[in-house]
Amino acid sequence: MKKTFEYDDKPPSLPLPTLEHTLERYLDSVRAVVNDDEYVRTKKIVEQFAKGIGRELHEQLKANIEKHQERNWLTKWWDEEIYLKWRLPIAPTINMMGFSCLLPPKVDSQLTRACIHIYACALVFETIYEERYPISYMEREKGGYLIPLNNVNDRIKFILGISMSSVEKLKREMREQEREMLEKQNELIQLQKKLDQEKQDKEDAAIRATFRLRNPRTRSSSSSSVTAAFNSTLTTFMPVAKSSQKRGHSDRPPIILTENQKENVR
């Protein structure tokens, strides 16, 4: 599944039109809403603007675009002035997607409607934050290929009344908090693994000790080893008295075997 902002850098950059082209478009849009006299006065104002402050403003705009290497010269002005600094509530003023017919108003239903609205906004916010929100496309031609659109407005859909620099700061803080949470989560995982290993080691040691106690061979072998080590220590540190008897001689009386004992020996 493609992420919401995966193609934000793919659309072509928006070039800055010439001042003459912009003013021509403006006059075309004005012509439909004014009469002839008003249009003549508007046209004179536009011509004065093009010869005076308009040319100066256009040059400043070009210099700003070249300085900051902006791909879309309109984004900054649109996001800052038109969207983020807007102080009026969006829902009742410029809401283009909310339909009251989906939940018709009823008496004493304000709390219910508010809760549903907050819940729906939270779901959309989570979807955008996790980049699961559908990508917007524009069809190039009928039956042709689709062009992905920039989804920058989805990034700031729930932020109003602050500048873009504050938005970037808030985004950095949220990413930093997310990184710290992941680090703490990894630390807890490592600590849990360590505790589990220590518990397993203790259980294994208890099982080995129980096995030694219940197994006679292991127990006798262990006892024999301790006894042998003790005797070896005594032999090392205690002097042994030399025997005065010659090899092959003894003061003990000879052993006399009976006939039956001799047969058993044979």
Describe this structure in words.
The chain is an all-alpha fold and 266 residues long. Helix content is 62%, strand content 2%. It has ten helices and two strands. Strand 1 and strand 2 form a beta hairpin. Helix 1 (19-31) packs antiparallel against helix 2. InterPro entries: Carn_acyl_trans, Carn_acyl_trans_N, Cho/carn_acyl_trans, Cho/carn_acyl_trans_2. Keywords: Acyltransferase, Coiled coil, Transferase. It comes from Rotaria sordida.
Number of domain units: 2
Strand order of the largest sheet: 1-2
* Poorly predicted spans: 240-246
Q: What is the CA–CA distance across the termini? A: 93 Å
Main sheet characteristics: 2 strands, antiparallel
Q: Helical segment tally?
A: 10
Number of strands: 2
Task: Report the β-strand fraction as a percent range.
Answer: under 5%
What pattern of helices and strands is seen along the backbone?
A: HHHHHHEEHHHH
Determine the structural class based on helices, strands and strand pairing.
Answer: mainly alpha
* Overall average pLDDT: 74
Q: Give the proportion of residues in helices.
A: 55-70%
Give the overall silhouette: elongated
Radius of gyration over all CA atoms, rounded = 46 Å
Pathway: Lipid metabolism; fatty acid beta-oxidation
Coiled coil: 160-208
GO molecular function: carnitine O-octanoyltransferase activity
Protein name: Choline/carnitine acyltransferase domain-containing protein
Question: Can you give keywords for this protein?
Answer:
single chain, 266 residues, mainly alpha, 2 domains, two-stranded antiparallel sheet, Cho/carn_acyl_trans
